[in-house]
Design a protein that fits this description.
6-stranded mixed sheet; binds magnesium ion; 19% helix; binds adenosine monophosphate; alpha/beta; 416 residues
Amino acid sequence: MGASLPSYAEAAAKVRDYGSQLLVRAKRIEPVALSNALGRVLARPVRADRDMPAFPRSTRDGFAVRTAEASGWLDIGGSIRAGDPPAPRLPAGLAWEIMTGAAVPEGADAVAMLEHIETEQVGQDGARVRLVPGRQLETGENIVPAAAEARAGDELIPAGTRFGPSQIAAAATCGYAIVEVFARPRVAILTTGDELVAIDATPGPGQIRNSNGIMLASLVAQAGGEPWLLPAVPDHRGDIESALRAALDADLLLISGGVSAGKFDLVEPALAGLGATFHFTGVRMQPGKPLVFGDLPVPGRLLPFFGHPGNPISTAATFLLFAAPILRALAGEEAIAPQFAAARLARDARGKPNLTRFIPARKASDGLPGSMPSVVPVPWQGSGDLAAFAHANCFLVIPEGTDRSSAGDTAMILPI
Ligand code: AMP
Ligand code: MG
């Protein structure tokens, strides 16, 4: 079995190389409001529109002082609040009360935090301050100098970055109410199988609802694509070919079912009929072994496709491991590889000879820093078990060549 099939690592390397070529392909760019940019991929860098900070900023509530004078009593010159225009230069012998986020006046070289300050009443309504005896104050303490974070024009977020909340905040502070992002790739989803009925239909004897269509649509949306869900087609070569023809406008084509070795697995012949090149037809993995990856010639470009084995857990695993990186490359995102993470295995798990296993599993964390999440395989009846899959939030990886992993081992997981 399978000696001629690529290993998971070999297949993943092929997909990564293919993805790198897609990354440099010209892509459509569109403006979106920053409020709608979450999950979108930046097409032009975000740059600082002014020095950051634009003025020396106090990071504490306290007193702006000259460090050399701070141990002696200083009269209070006034108060500076966040948002106030810069105060005049600090005269010798004075301290200015200052709030977090306010501009530190010229002449002051540190801010003594309120908790380190001693106040003394002077006369009816005057007061003076000094550092609590024994306290030190370093030059520059509690001040972020102007331009210490970035200079006007500096690139803060490179093109190819997917917007998360931290990038949205950085773009917002630079005044980007609108950002230029890559258009979402359109991903055609074609499900095949005589047994499939719509999710709002009652299956007849031997029939099942088409869960893969909507699952793939959600996986596509999660990975940054625009799902284009086509009607399911029966296991009939002519029907499959016409359905494929109708999908050639897509940027990526995902097919579910019909790629195993069975008599009615007609997807490969249909693809071949349209002139497909196959990069691999099978991978040494479980589930997902029959996965097919290739491209179809369409005017002016190649249309990459995946033929996913129809068992839902195989479909999901092969999407996350192989189709998602290609989709991210089409979306212009630089970081295309699947993001595996480490977790502590809570129960023994077995490997399979000559295969990398991807076992649906549940990771949990106690939320404490320094403790690794734990992961436990969900009990399952094989790759069609959607009841088990509903409990899974990741795949546990058992690499090829590993006979068994034991409770307590560190294992790699892929979040779903
Ligand atoms: P296949 O890859 O076509 O041999 O299908 C493998 C298994 O997955 C069979 O049990 C199918 O009934 C099931 N299956 C195929 N397509 C879907 C689908 N769209 N939704 C849910 N299950 C499916
Ligand atoms: Mg089938």
